[in-house]
Amino acid sequence: MSDGVDQSSYPPADPDDPDIDVHEREGLPADAVILTSTQDPPMTAPTETWAMLVLGIFMTDGELQQIAGTWLVGDLPAQQYDGDLALRLTPRTSSPARPLVDVELWQSYQKDWHLLGAMKNQSTDWPAAIAPAAAAFMTEYMRAVEGLSVKPTPASDRWHRHRIRDLLEAGLLAVDGQLYPPRQGNHLPEPARVDSDGRIVLLDGRSFVDPTSAATAVCGYPRNGWRAFWHTADGRPLGRLLTELDEVRDATLARLAQL
After folding, report:
1. Model pTM?
2. b/e per residue, 55-66, with b = 16+ CB within 10 A?
């Protein structure tokens, strides 16, 4: 998907550069956490949060540059977006001199969260240690989803829900409607469009069934396309439309259950 993409065309902002607002540059939420190999990371999750949702992983020659994430509130929140990847932290020691943490990798699919694996007793360099595995899981998921969209099987929709098509059918997106990447300073990158099959079509003609696959192709590194990348013309993140759709469906089912 991202093979052949020039990463320099959409590089992440340098979190150590005081003249650059990383969140604005990357189109990230204001509360997004930026992890780098040069800064001490959190060794425990904030109170009342379950895990850190991964928004993007940028690496150069196998070395971590940054992980962007946001904390998920509550206990094992209900899955909304297939392919989401989360990092769950469990402190192992209380020693300020040598804090250790277990880092679990979780991914959402088939309407639930699934534990992929864990790295035990990690020190403050855990972001650099976990980044290759996290990026690999995101990449393999995207490859599987795009492969199933080309050669679907009877189990395809059960394994991966075609949520862009759902938004089209609900009228929350329109055929040939435009989706916009984050603004780059004063420059607004070229938008993508949604075709009649529910695929996101980039300016160069490549198309993807999954928003994260499309965002990754644009950026050249694994990037969550539901949460904080693709926006509608009125500024709503693509994932917000999906939340609105699910809320309407839940309300409809609740009313039907009362009949």
Report:
1. 0.81
2. bbbbbeeeebbb
- Assess whether 142 and 26 both reside in one domain: yes
Q: Please tell me the distance from the alpha carbon of residue 90 to that of residue 82, in angstroms, as a whole number.
A: 24
Cα–Cα dist 259/82, whole Å: 31
Q: Residue 143 falls within a domain, yes or no? A: yes
Q: Are residues 203 and 164 in the same domain?
A: yes
Total domain count, the chain: 2
Q: Are residues 141 and 37 in the same domain?
A: yes
Residue whose tokens read 């604005």: 24
Largest CA distance in the chain: 61
Show pLDDT as tens, one digit a residue, over the chain (259 residues): 333 333 333 444 444 454 456 677 677 778 899 999 888 999 999 999 999 999 999 988 888 889 999 999 887 666 567 788 999 999 997 677 889 999 999 998 877 888 999 999 999 999 999 999 999 999 998 988 888 776 555 555 554 566 888 899 989 999 999 999 987 655 667 899 999 999 999 999 999 999 999 999 988 899 999 888 899 988 888 888 888 888 887 888 888 888 7
Domain that holds residue 142: 17-148
